[in-house]
Design goal:
Elements (H helix, E strand, L loop, with lengths): L2 H5 L3 E5 L2 E5 L4 H5 L4 H14 L2 H7 L4 H16 L7 H9 L1
Antiparallel strand pairs: 1-2
Amino acid sequence: MSSSDLEDTELRVTLRHGTITLMPVNPLSDLLKLPADDRAQIAIALWESLSDAERDTAFDLTDEQRAELDRRWAEHQRNPNSAIPWSEIRRKLLG
């Protein structure tokens, strides 16, 4: 069996106190194959599993990021009509 075969194989190990299942090396590739609604439900469950403290620390901005957001917000305040709706950007990206 090659190492690539092992990446997609589940391994069950029986111990004195029970059985554990070792998941594939890269379960993300399997998750990305799920239908969109299943992936969305998983994403929501993962997000909701974070504590407020975990959410806050996960999204700490650097000084440079904060300055860029401030610059963009000020630019938008000066010229709100320059904004491009998400639907238009998405249409252009998807062709």
